[in-house]
Amino acid sequence: MTDVVRLESLRKTYGPTVTALDGVTVGFPAGSFTAVMGPSGSGKSTLLQCAAGLDRPTSGRVFIDGAELTATGDTAMTKFRRRRVGFVFQDYNLLPALTVEQNVRLPLRLAGQKPNRQTISGVLTQLGLADRRHDRPEALSGGQRQRVAVARALVTEPAVIFADEPTGALDLRSARDVLGLLRSVVDRHGRTVVMVTHDPVAASYADTVMFLADGRLAGALRTPTAAAVAERLAHLGDLVTAGGAA
Ligand code: ADP
After folding, report:
1. Candidates 10, 12, 45: which one to mutate for ligand 1, based on the most atoms within 8 Å of Cβ?
2. What are 200-217's pLDDT values in tens digits?
3. What is the pLDDT, as a whole number, of residue 111?
4. What spacing in Å lies between the alpha carbon of 166 and ligand 1's midpoint?
5. 246 by DSSP, 3-state: which?
6. Where are the domains of the chain?
7. CATH number given to 3-18+42-198
């Protein structure tokens, strides 16, 4: 399988003392759902930000769809990101003054693409939002808002969708709903999803869990169960406390 996202020797330091990422090399195959887990401060957010082109690594390379993101200037990077990368954030990041439909349409406008009425309608219908299209986010529940965020992430048909704790602000039922939705984004739409989470149940929706400890890769778990993930996480904690990541 081809890797849609490839990170090579990714390093990110803050000042002389903090190493957030310490040489991470990993690929995310097309049509896969990967969860990124690890203790607080292990570099998960930094990895996502660098992989998505929202931040630059100190050294190392990021490839998306074979194009080297790290080789481009800031303007080209923003342009590329708008066309090829989708985002889902913990706090939805919807614009409160815009309707559901306008929020979903926004990435197309920003990417300089002409919003196609059928594309927008199609995405809204697939995500069960057709009858909410004229509502503003404040009229929706948390789970519905996150649905809108997923619709917005899908609309440009991006190479990859990065999700940062997408269920962190949701109740159990809405969380399951959104995770099922991300799963179907991969299974039915053939998209690639990379999700940072601290929740083993959320991670169990992924095909693979990738663990980070102290800014380094600390193993992976395929077809994860929540119990297996929780156990591995506890073990990672031991490793970090003992001062040596695997
Ligand atoms: P995680 O998402 O796993 O909690 P982060 O990627 O947020 O980890 O952080 C990794 C390390 O980098 C931590 O030690 C954190 O304190 C540090 N860090 C992250 N962002 C900054 C920043 N802007 N300035 C300084 N240190 C940072």
Report:
1. 45
2. 999 999 999 999 999 999
3. 85
4. 19
5. coil
6. 3-18+42-198, 204-246
7. 3.40.50.300
